[in-house]
Write a structure and sequence with these properties.
The chain has helices at residues 11-26, 39-42, 59-66, 125-134, 147-151, 164-169, 203-210, 215-230, 278-291, 295-305, and strands at residues 2-7, 30-35, 72-76, 91-95, 104-107, 119-121, 139-141, 159-163, 176-180, 194-199, 239-245, 251-258, 265-272. The protein is α/β, with parallel strands linked by helices and 309 residues long. It has 3 domains: 2-99 and 194-213, D-Maltodextrin-Binding Protein, domain 2, CATH 3.40.190.10; 104-180, 3-Layer(aba) Sandwich (D-Maltodextrin-Binding Protein, domain 2), CATH 3.40.190; 226-305, Double Stranded RNA Binding Domain (2-Layer Sandwich), CATH 3.30.160.40. The radius of gyration is 19 Å and the shape is globular.
């Protein structure tokens, strides 16, 4: 059986799709790539939030599977919408392979070496808010483009914030000035993980992809996605989550919600035993942060502050 894998054509997306293809071949299946352009690729000079945020890099890839041009959609898990209302009907998340490094990294200078007022470039409101919380003196610049383009935009005396795994997968680790531990900067939901989707009724493909599933990685990603889903599809505030699975199967989930300027940062942590439903744990973490942690007031404040048409 040969599976057609739909993917974006950027160097990182190609690496990810080839990695999944390699896993399939090792399992005895064939694989070939089907390249798709997305709105996120075509409009590389616009901030992701202006393109609809999550989903800007996945909708066209999903369409290739839904219309039969491909059998599997390969994504960065962080790009997949977590809210059920925004997920593509007819597709299922069939496999999450072994997760890569979920952490963020600085390119240019280490955090402690950035001079007062230094420029930090990032296209992520999550990264910007947490950097502003860590260093209120910093200033920020928008950052878009593929990895090579971004590496050419390191501000003088400043830094870029990027996913450590992206640099590692492309053999560009030498550019990393500092890897930021989750205790310093909480990662994006699903960062470092890959996601393979297929049609809901395609039992043969589902059976093949099941062999790629890494249980602990899937549980961690499901918990993080559950948290993001709890915030609702209209949440534009910086959110982050990081789940780990211990050797005994216990889940630990840390979550964050912040204002865009980083002046308010709310954190919460929950744990579940080996039998806990990870999605339910993520939803519970979100509800606790919203109801008891003050997050609901943060969300309502962001809606009230949004410009009216």
């Amino acid at each position: 059986m040969t599976l057609r894998l739909a993917t974006r054509s950027s160097p990182l997306a190609r690496w990810q799709a080839e990695h999944v293809a390699g896993l399939l071949r090792a399992a005895g299946a064939g694989a070939e790539l089907v390249f798709v352009d997305t709105v996120g690729d075509r409009e590389g000079d616009r901030p992701i939030r202006e393109l609809g945020g999550q989903g800007a890099f996945v909708k066209e890839v999903q369409s290739a599977v839904l219309d039969g041009r491909a059998d599997v959609a390969v994504h960065s898990a962080k790009d997949l919408p977590s809210n059920p209302a925004l997920q593509a009907p007819g597709l299922v998340l069939a496999a999450v392979p072994l997760r890569g490094d979920p952490r963020d990294a600085l390119v240019g200078r280490r955090l402690d070496d950035l001079p007062p007022g230094a420029v930090v470039a990032t296209g992520s409101s999550r990264r910007r808010a947490q950097m502003a919380d860590l260093r209120p003196d910093l200033t920020f610049a928008e950052l878009r483009g593929n990895i090579a383009t971004r590496l050419g935009k390191v501000p003088g005396s400043g830094a870029l914030v990027m996913a450590a795994v992206a640099l590692a997968r492309l053999g560009l680790e030498a550019h990393v000035a500092e890897v930021l531990e989750p205790e310093v900067m909480l990662p994006q939901v699903g960062q470092g993980a890959l996601a393979a989707e297929c049609r809901a009724g395609d039992d043969e493909t589902l059976a093949v992809l099941a062999g790629l599933e890494h249980g602990p990685s899937r549980r961690a990603v499901d918990a993080e996605r559950g948290y993001l889903a709890s915030l609702g599809g209209g949440c534009e505030l910086p959110a982050a989550a990081y789940a780990t699975v211990a050797a005994d199967g216990r889940l630990r989930l840390r979550v964050l919600l912040a204002t865009l300027d980083g002046r308010q940062v709310l954190r919460h942590e929950v744990a579940g035993d080996a039998g806990a439903d990870p999605t339910a744990l993520g939803l519970a973490a979100g509800q606790a942060l919203l109801d008891a942690g003050g997050g609901r007031a943060l969300l309502e404040g962001s809606v009230a502050a949004s410009p009216r048409p």
